[in-house]
Amino acid sequence: MSGLLQDVKIAVIGLGYVGLPLAVEFGKKYSTIGFDINQARVDELMAGNDSTLEVDSQALKQAKLLSYTTDVATLSSANVYIVTVPTPIDKHNQPDLSPLIGASKLLGGVIGKDDVVIFESTVYPGATEEDCIPVIETVSGLVYNKDFFAGYSPERINPGDKVNTLTKIKKVTSGSTPKIADFVDELYGSIISAGTHKATSIKVAEASKVIENVQRDVNIALINELHQIFDRLNINTKDVIDAAGTKWNFMKLMPGLVGGHCIGVDPYYLLHKSQTTGYVPDLMRQAREINNTMPSFVANNFLRTLLSKKINPVECNVLLMGFTFKENCPDIRNTKVLELYNELLMLGFNVDIYDNWADTEEAYEEYGIKLINSIEKDYDVGLLAVPHSQIVGDLNSKTINFNHGFVYDFKNALENKPS
């Protein structure tokens, strides 16, 4: 590769929440191929629609140099490959690198001499060069840092956030040689208006990404633990946070169900890597345990609250509001509301889930859960799990009502606190 940006032809592997915004921005300046194995996803993008709602139709039209494909053969015309596939965990909470290894095998079949592959997927330090690069070498027959090169630039997409978008968030970059590090930094710097930070190595860049979410996980776990203490003391957690938040350096977080594809997943990658070195990070592990038990706490606290209000929980019809992993976002990956729903069923409640953001077909295909997208019957009580703006507005305006006039609102999102 010449190192000149005008010679760049980019292929983005994976067109989800991370890959699509990236492909669109690059597609405004460089010849870019957006690749995904899901034909339905490619078809909707070619039609100018994004079901994740991360990129609107106007922005899709502005990426005039971007094309979409499921055809692997077309990728060989690129000379920069950016991998944005998911990095999930398995049922034992161990890193599942199969999407990343699959992408590496795919790249091994198309990568050419002097090409650069850049990984954005969140991993543990060392995964790029220890797990992915050897696969590319084996399949391609090329030698790393002689025939092809690598970079790592961790994604910082916040699903549903229309303020802190891709180009407005400073981007960490890195490369496998000083020259490639400069190239990767220049490439991203050409589309990221917030600027870049060139890390000293790929491992440093990998570590920087994973600890962003580890830090939030630990801090939210603290708030979730404090919430359980304050509940026993009959103190409103939001009132405490508002008071403490008057100090300039207090971090204002609220209790919550920690799901999604980042905070609820990424810490397990560092936990895994740490344990391979013989060190067990107790604080990180305990934070995960606290956050993972929140659905059970909420369900049982909901039951205790009903009993304290003399509301009979037997055959109680509950409207569980919100299913996505966070408010005002259609993303249902690793949603903890699923566990909350199951906990409520085990306690004997009759439960329907209402969410005006979630795709009902996707929820059924992924979890076997039938969501409702309109409220057609009466419910005894409500449980606000995910405070989507529309749902909060309807509750505040009494557009949604309940037979017992009670909504359990553990995040204190409503104007009138439960009495």
TrEMBL record:
Q: Protein name, please?
A: Vi polysaccharide biosynthesis protein VipA/TviB
Per UniProt, the keywords (alphabetical) are: NAD, Oxidoreductase
The organism's place on the tree of life at top rank: Bacteria
Q: Does the keyword Oxidoreductase apply?
A: yes
What GO molecular function annotations does the UniProt record carry, in alphabetical order?
NAD binding; oxidoreductase activity, acting on the CH-CH group of donors, NAD or NADP as acceptor; oxidoreductase activity, acting on the CH-OH group of donors, NAD or NADP as acceptor
Q: Which residues form the UDP-glucose/GDP-mannose dehydrogenase C-terminal domain?
A: 319-416
- Give the InterPro entries listed for this entry: 6-PGluconate_DH-like_C_sf, NAD(P)-bd_dom_sf, UDP-Glc/GDP-Man, UDP-Glc/GDP-Man_DH_C, UDP-Glc/GDP-Man_DH_C_sf, UDP-Glc/GDP-Man_DH_dimer, UDP-Glc/GDP-Man_DH_N, UDP_ManNAc/GlcNAc_DH
Annotated SMART domains = UDPG_MGDP_dh_C
Q: Which organism is it from?
A: Pseudoalteromonas phenolica
* Similarity annotation: Belongs to the UDP-glucose/GDP-mannose dehydrogenase family.
Q: Which Pfam families match?
A: UDPG_MGDP_dh, UDPG_MGDP_dh_C, UDPG_MGDP_dh_N
**Which NCBIfam families is this protein grouped with?**
NDP-sugDHase
One GO BP: polysaccharide biosynthetic process
Q: Which Gene3D superfamilies match?
A: NAD(P)-binding Rossmann-like Domain
* UniProt keyword annotation of Transferase present: no
